[in-house]
Amino acid sequence: MRETADQTSLLSEAGRAFVSTPLSMLIDGEWTASETGRTITVTDPATGLAITTVPKGSAADVDRAVASARRAFEGPWAATRPVERERLLLRLADMLEARGDEFAELETLDNGKILMMARYGDLSLAVDSLRYMAGWATKIEGTTISPSFAYVPDMRFTSYTLREPVGVIGQIIPWNFPLVMAIWKIAPALAAGCTVVLKPAEDTPLSALRLGQLICEAGFPDGVVNIVTGDAEPGQALVDHPDVDKIAFTGSTEVGKIIQQRAAGTMKRLSLELGGKSPVVILKDADVGMAVQGAAQAIFFNHGQVCTAGSRLFVERPIYDAVVDGLAQVADGFRLGSGFDPEAQMGPLVSPAQRARVQGFLDRGLAEGGRLVAGGGEVDGPGNFLRPAVFADVSPDMTIYREEIFGPVLAATPFDDVDTVTALANDSSYGLGASVWTGDMRLANHFVRKLKAGNVWVNAHNLLDPAVPFGGYRMSGYGRELGHAARDLYTESKSVTMAL
């Protein structure tokens, strides 16, 4: 039985000061409670102990936030030159980078992820993304067109397009990468000239609120960014609100479907980055050691709580046993513990509900005839710990093969030829990520073209860069974040024709 200790004592002085009192949400440049006075307790997933409280936002709070964002959009933010938006975002990036250790601690305390990963993975990507998106503020351009209007032959015309900000954006982010997801949503919207109402996940609001403090300190006008905390109510209110011009959502496919249905009433713009059941294909010519480490990273990174997690593993039969045995050794060798423990390799899942959900998939996998070769099962003691699991010889009719688990559970299946595995890899309603491991670039290119996924890696998995677009096919959503594509998410195209 592990002892339970309050991990806030492990934080830096700045981190302890931040969580030492109840927190407020940000509306119109002011830190405020919910109009209802209700709060939510934020808990540490490694201990189950309370950290602090945040407001439980309501539809009335969303009304205030949206009104604030609208005033800012039509007022001071509209008057801000593109180069000034760029400078503000770059200043925010510098401030975030300078407080990287503090933010990493908050992510580990709030989410449970390993501290080193939070510091050198999440924080680095967040800062890089801010700086990359800042550059787009001065590079939003249209095109010039020479039209041919045959029915007015005696006149000449010119046409051009403008890209204009969409307006007030409602942004709803998940709990698996709280800070990175906040930056991926906020930065391109502000670069394009939009204003934002951000709804962080109920389980992990801390880094978004601390980011809100930096946004105020950086000098953004009041109302440009508003942050409303709470459960599903403020998220639903954002989707329904008639004065919200667009919803940008990252989360489950089930919730994405609901958002799509509810948004029909106001015809607001949508971008949805949803779930996944990503295949990892290992061909017989692949280096077994490299393939084992790559497949392990694909599924066990961030405790499997990744939308592109490589949860379906297909291995060509000649090396299937060696790869599965290697992965079983990796899974059984993980040291579980608090993200603050320098020897821990995997932390807790984010909440008791998430651990119970993943355990339910493990139980179903066994009940449906899955062969568990490593790990699996909850860990006695405080915290939401669960041993990483490897199932072998999984068939396509099993639940663990078909449904997104969002936890450290791998389903492995052998295959005998390329055509068979291509069909198996694409046999999913999802299409977010996929990877292939081989030394044969001819085969690699074959898979790149055949795999139905928005993100395909060769001899790698889960690599992300601010310049590379990210998004999915099919039930994994639509719209692309990052890269040049992010500009299109937050701008509208206007065509103008003038008689000369």
Automatic annotation (TrEMBL):
Q: Which InterPro entries match?
A: Ald_DH/histidinol_DH, Ald_DH_C, Ald_DH_CS_CYS, Ald_DH_CS_GLU, Ald_DH_N, Aldehyde_DH_dom
What Pfam families has UniProt attached to this entry?
Aldedh (PF00171)
Q: GO molecular function: any one?
A: oxidoreductase activity, acting on the aldehyde or oxo group of donors, NAD or NADP as acceptor
Q: Which UniProt keywords apply?
A: Oxidoreductase
Spell out the PROSITE patterns in the cross-references: ALDEHYDE_DEHYDR_CYS, ALDEHYDE_DEHYDR_GLU
Spell out where the chain crosses the membrane. Answer: none
Oxidoreductase listed as a keyword: yes
Sorted alphabetically, which Gene3D superfamilies does this protein's record hold?
Aldehyde Dehydrogenase, Chain A, domain 1, Aldehyde Dehydrogenase, Chain A, domain 2
Residue intervals of the Aldehyde dehydrogenase domain: 31-496
List of catalytic residues? 273
Member of which family?
A: Belongs to the aldehyde dehydrogenase family.
PANTHER family listed in its UniProt record? ALDEHYDE DEHYDROGENASE-RELATED
Q: What is the recorded name of this protein?
A: Aldehyde dehydrogenase
What organism is listed for this UniProt entry?
A: Novosphingobium guangzhouense
